[in-house]
Write a structure and sequence with these properties.
Helices cover 33% and strands 15% of the residues. The chain is an alpha/beta fold. It contains 13 helices and 17 strands. The chain has helices at residues 4-9, 15-24, 61-65, 80-86, 113-116, 135-144, 154-162, 220-239, 245-268, 275-280, 289-303, 326-350, 420-430, and strands at 41-47, 90-91, 98-101, 106-109, 122-129, 172-175, 201-203, 308-313, 357-363, 366-367, 370-371, 383-384, 388-393, 402-403, 418-419, 440-442, 445-447. It has one domain: Alkaline Phosphatase, subunit A (3-Layer(aba) Sandwich), CATH 3.40.720. The radius of gyration is 23 Å and the shape is globular.
Length: 462
């Protein structure tokens, strides 16, 4: 009996052989873009927990003017926001005063002094709506385009569309928070229904980002022989079966791990970086060192051809989920990331890398301007699926641009609603990918990151 591989090779006019060649090609080989674009790679900074937009990037004088008073009922909202805004509440003023910065005169909170110096490089989108007001579904929506588990993450889509420029490192790397896993775990950087080769590879925070990074004491030649034997057995097993994508990805991962043992130690070794560079990222301060290390490693990764790097901040009780005591909590969050993020932008720019590196700041939702707990002297802010603020920089983004605006109380977008899929469509466009051509047949339907489709926000493009 012929194996599946032999049958394909001997099929009519050799077309089966052509199909087989396509099946067995390297899934991470570089692929052509759908259209010309500046961005070659992306660093996606994700702040888990719901960043308060009115304490960071949205200047709302009404919150100070009406502090302590009842919030007017939020119009054109439903669910929790509509209910909580109509219930007894009090408006909470910004934690820190806002000031104007840069040639654009953009208002930025005093909690972000370092990032304020880079505002002329940033393009903001205000009033983005996500599909759920709870963390789990909102995190999935922000990072996979779907509020339910099982869909492919943004990084998986990008590497599926473009492949990788580096053969010795993963095409999609995730930098985890040292304090624990993000909500959704590996699902938010997974491949979903895409081939398993496109899932993200998690690097831990600290001095040993990769477990078992260094080769075993025995000879490299011996290790190579073992891998060759294992590869032969796996390929023999795969040739006799169909739907072997996970096994094929496992074979590829063994080979990549072997190559990484020679390349990755140099990647994670920061001893060659100058003291000035380390200081730029905040590695000389205890509070900024962990996220600063993540951001510096992200620069080193894209510098070496990694296509997509997701950098996570916030875990457990240290997330941006400030339902209470926001006056003490959010200054800590901002202090942890302000200098590292600003350092990343300045470092990329000084090296001439910002032009072809897209940097994205995101969270899963915004916050409310009010608190329903009228008894505490340490109030906080609740979830707001209508008020997400994001920014992008580099890679074809129009520096200093703004799209969208929220109402006087930063509850929701003024005018037309901005669905999150519009932001995803814009990100793909900046990477040279057409959201409609980047699809994958699954369960009888062509799936896309933007689902029913989004509008590319050309107002923030060069």
């Amino acid at each position: 009996m012929k194996t599946r591989r032999e049958l394909l090779l001997s099929s009519y006019l050799g077309l089966g052989g052509i199909a087989l060649a396509d099946m067995t090609e390297d899934p991470m080989a570089p692929k052509p873009k759908h259209h010309l674009s500046r961005a070659k790679r992306c660093i996606f900074l994700f702040m888990e927990g719901g960043v308060s937009q009115m304490d960071t990037f949205e200047h709302k004088p009404a919150l100070t003017k009406y502090a302590g008073k009842q919030m007017p009922r939020a119009e054109r909202t439903s669910g929790e926001i509509a209910t909580f805004s109509a219930a007894p509440n009090r408006i909470i003023p910004p934690v820190s005063p806002f000031r104007q910065h840069g040639q654009t005169g953009r208002w930025i909170s005093g909690l972000m002094p370092e990032l304020s110096s880079t505002v002329d490089d940033l393009a903001f989108v205000h009033g983005i709506k996500v599909d759920n007001n709870n963390h789990g579904p909102a995190v999935y929506h922000s990072l996979t385009g779907n509020q339910f588990p099982g869909s492919a993450s943004i990084g998986a889509w990008v590497t599926y569309g473009l492949g990788s420029e580096n053969r010795d490192l993963p095409g999609f790397i995730v930098m985890g928070d040292r304090r624990g896993a993000t909500i959704g775990g590996a699902g938010v950087w997974g491949n979903g229904f895409l081939p398993a080769a496109y899932q993200g590879t998690l690097f831990r925070n600290g001095s040993t980002p990769i477990v078992d990074l260094h080769p075993r004491p025995e000879s490299v030649a011996g290790q190579r022989q073992e891998l060759d034997l294992l590869k032969w057995l796996n390929e023999k097993h795969s040739a006799e079966r169909s739907h072997t994508g996970e096994l094929d990805a496992r074979i590829a991962s063994f080979e990549l791990a072997f190559r990484m043992q020679s390349r990755a130690p140099e990647l994670v070794d920061l001893s060659g970086e100058s003291e000035a560079t380390k200081k730029l990222y905040g590695l000389d301060e205890e509070i900024t060192e962990p996220f600063g290390r993540q951001c510096l490693l992200a620069r080193r990764m894209v510098e070496r051809g990694v296509r997509f790097v997701k950098v996570l901040h916030g875990a457990g009780g240290d997330r941006w989920d400030d339902h209470g005591n926001i006056g003490e909590r959010i200054p800590i969050h901002c202090k942890e990331v302000d200098k590292p993020v600003a350092g990343l932008l300045k470092d990329l720019k000084s090296r001439g890398m910002l032009d072809d590196t897209l940097v994205v700041w995101a969270s899963e939702m915004g916050r409310t301007p009010f608190d329903n707990n009228l008894t505490t002297d340490k109030p906080g802010r609740d979830h707001n699926q209508y008020g997400l603020a994001m920014w992008m920089a580099g890679g074809g983004v129009k520096a200093g641009a703004t799209f969208g605006a929220t109402d006087d109380f930063s509850v929701r977008a003024e005018g037309e609603e901005i669905p999150l899929r519009d932001v995803h469509a814009t990100l793909l466009h900046l990477m040279g990918l057409d959201q409609n051509r980047l699809s994958y047949l699954h369960a009888g339907r062509y799936k896309k990151l933007t689902d029913i489709g989004g509008r590319v926000i050309r107002e923030i493009l060069v």
